[in-house]
Amino acid sequence: MTRQVMVNGRSGRIETEGSRLRYQREDGVQIDCECSLERTGSFSGPGEYSVLLDGRSYRVSLGTNKEVWVNGRALAMEVFDTARRLAQAARTNRGRQEIAAMMPGKVIHVLVAAGDTVEEGQGLVVVEAMKMQNEIKSPKAGRVAEVRARPDATVGAGEILVVVE
Amino acid sequence: MFSKVLVANRGEIAVRVVRALRELGIASVATYSDADRGSLAVRLADEAAYVGPSPSSESYLRIDRILDAAKRHGAEAIHPGYGFLSENAEFAEACAAAGIVFIGPPAESIRKLGSKTSARQLAIAAGTPVVPGTDRALSGWEEARAAANTLGYPVLLKASAGGGGKGMRRVDGESEMRSALRDAASEAGRAFGNSEVYVEKLVEEPRHIEIQILGDHHGHLIHLGERECSIQRRHQKVIEECPSPFMAAHPDLREKMGQAALKVARAAGYTNAGTVEFLVDRDANFYFLETNTRLQVEHPVTELATGLDLVEWQLKIAAGEHLTLRQEDIAWRGSAIECRIYAEDPDHEFMPSPGRIVHLSEPSGPGIRLDSGIFEGWDVPLEYDPLLAKLAVWGATRDAAVRRLERALSEYVLTGVRNNIAFFREVLADAEFREGQLSTTFLDRFLKRRKKAEADPEAEAAAALVLALESNQDVPPRENSRRLDAWVTSGREDILR
Questions:
Q1: Which residue of chain B comes nearest to A3, CA vs CA?
Q2: Disruptive mutation site among A13, A20, A43, A103 for chain B (greatest number of B CBs within 10 Å)
Q3: CATH 2.40.50.100 holds for A95-164
Q4: Which chain B residues are within 8 Å of A68, Cβ to Cβ?
C-alpha cells in the first residue's frame, strides 16, 4: 500500500509492505521500521489504534475535521488527492471570498451591510457560542457583496455568513 | 440529615454533587434542560426533573421551574452547584419561602458579599486590606475617567455582580476607557442581568490566592487554607493548586490570610462553604478581591490536600449539624493540582468548540481524581460553559504532583471536540511553572514565548499508517454498531412520536 499524505501542511509518502513501513517527508526526513497495528477500544465509536514502530508504542485515533490524534496530540492530516487539491487552490485564489462560521453559535451583531467597503481584518459579524463572543473578520480588503447572517439567528459550522469580493 | 436533595446544576458539578449524595445515602434529583436529557448527571442520579429549554435563561436560571421540580420530586433541599443560581439571593429566599433548604449561605450574606462593591465596603469595615478603587458602581463614562485618573493607569473594570472574568476589562489609558466601559457593561448585563461596573487599580503581576472557609449555623467558622489560581486566561482560572507554592517562602502567610478571610465571613454572618479571594503581590501583601458564596469549581484540590469532603460538609451544615472540625484539626498534606479541561482550541485563540465527543480514554491510576461530565458520544452543547472535566492529582511534593499530572494528561485522549489537554502538557513543561513562579499574567507571557511543538516524524508515520489504512477500506468495519445505532434511533423515534 502506498499513499500520499498531508501533515500540518507538508506532504509525505507512506508505504507498507508486509510488516515493513517506510515514511518519507518532503523535507527529506525518513522513517523505515517494523510496524504492527491493532485496533482497540469500543465498537460503537471509531475507537483507537495501537501502533508499534520498532517496538515503540503510539496510540492513534481519528478525530473529526481531518485530525489524527497521536499520543494525545492532534495532527492536521489528510490523504493527499491531487485533483481535489488543485480545485481547492483555484477556489481560494479567486477574488470572491465566502466567510463561514467556524463553529456553531448564535449571531449577536452584524457589523456590515451589502455594498460596504471593508479592510482586511475588519470585523464582519459577532457570533456567540458557549458564552464567548467571537468577531469574524474579513480575510481581505474589498466590498461586501452579500450578508447572509441575521441577528439572533443560530448558525451551524461552515454556514456562510458574509461574502466579500 | 436530608433524605432527598435536588441538584440545580449541570455538567461535572452536578455529577460531583450526585456522587456525594449517593455516598451519604441521600436520594438525588438531577435537573436537565432539553440539551442535557442524556447527561451523565441524569444517568447517575436517582431521579431527574426537566426544567426547560436549552438556553439557561429558560431552564437552570428559572427559579420558578427549579422550585417546581423540587416540589414535584419531594426534595427537602437544593444544592445549587456553582454558577447559575448559586449566588442568587432571591433564589435562596424563594427556597426558604417554599420550605426548601438552600444549601449555601443565608440570602443576607449573599447579598452583602455578592455585589463586589458592597463586599469591598464590608471588607474595609472588617479591617481586611482591599485594592484601591471605587467603592460603588460607576454612573457612566465621566465618572470612570475621573476615578481612573485618580487611581492612575493601568486600571481594571469589573462587573459588580460578576465572577469568572465576565464583564472585566484592563484599561491602559484614557483613550481605551470609553469602549472598555461599554464592552464590560454589556458583557456583565448579558452574563448576570446586571450591567453595573466599577473600577480598581491594577496590581501588577499578582498571584491569585484564595481561602476556603466553612462555617456552621452555631457560630463556628474555620478556614481550610489556600488555593493558588494564578494560571488564568482572560480572568478564567485554568490551573489551581493547594498549597500555593508561594507559601513555602512565606510560612505565616496562610494563617494571616485565613484570619483576614474569617473577618470578612464573620462580618457577613456567613455559613456553609465559601471562598474569599485575594490578590497577593511580590512582597506578600494581600488585598481582598471578592467572595464566592458557593462551592468553588476548584474545590477538589483543597479536598485532596486536607482529606475533607466539602460537599459532604455543605450538606451537613445545611441540615443544621455542628461543624465538628476545629481550626487546629486542619492539616495540609502533600500537593494537589487541578487543570480544567475545556472544549476550546488553544491553537485558534481558545475558540469554543462544541460538538460530539468521538473518542474518550480517561486517565486513572495512583493519585488521580477526575471530575467529569462527559462520555463518548456526548454532544457538548453550545449553550453552556465549555468546561468538560477537571483533572486533579495529588503528590507528596509539588514536583511529584506536576509529574503525575503530566502522566495523567498523557493518558487522556479526547477527540471530536478541540480541547486544551495537550496545551496543559506544554504549560507543565515550562520552567517558570515548574519553579512555581506564578502570576495572573503567566499565561499571557507563556503564550507569547510558546513555540508550536514540531511533530515527531515517527508519530506522524504512526498517524499516517492509520489514516492510510482507514481511507483504504471500502467496507466499513463497524457493521454491528451500525445496526445497533439504527435500532436505537428508531426506538428513540417511537418514543418521541
A1: B468
A2: A103
A3: yes
A4: 463, 466-467
> Of the given ranges (A83-92, B237-246, B466-475, B486-495), which has the lowest mean pLDDT?
B486-495
Question: Would you list the DSSP string of B102-145?
Answer: ESSS-HHHHHHHHSHHHHHHHHHHHT--B-SB-SS---SHHHHH
Residues of B with a catalytic annotation lie at 294
Contact B157, B184 (CB under 8 A): yes
* A110 and chain B in contact, CB less than 8 A: no
CATH of domain B4-103: 3.40.50.20
Please report residues of B whose CB lies closer than 8 A to that of A67: 415
Q: Where are the domains positioned within chain A? A: 2-83, 95-164
Predicted model pTM: 0.81
Kindly state the cell numbers that stand for A22.
517506510
Q: Which fold has domain B207-449?
A: D-amino Acid Aminotransferase; Chain A, domain 1 (3.30.470)
CB B377 within 8 A of CB B356: yes
pLDDT tens digits, one per residue of B189-228 = 888 888 899 998 899 899 999 999 999 999 999 999 999 9
Interface test with A, best of B362, B407, B415, B423 (most A CBs within 10 A): B415
Please report, for chain B, the start and end positions of each structural domain, with discontinuous segments joined by +: 4-103, 132-201, 207-449, 467-496
Q: Which CATH class is domain B132-201?
A: alpha beta
Instruction: Say yes or no for a CB contact (<8 Å) between B460 and A132.
Output: no
Top-ranked range on mean pLDDT: pick from B141-150, B195-204, B239-248:
B239-248
CA distance A133 to A106: 9
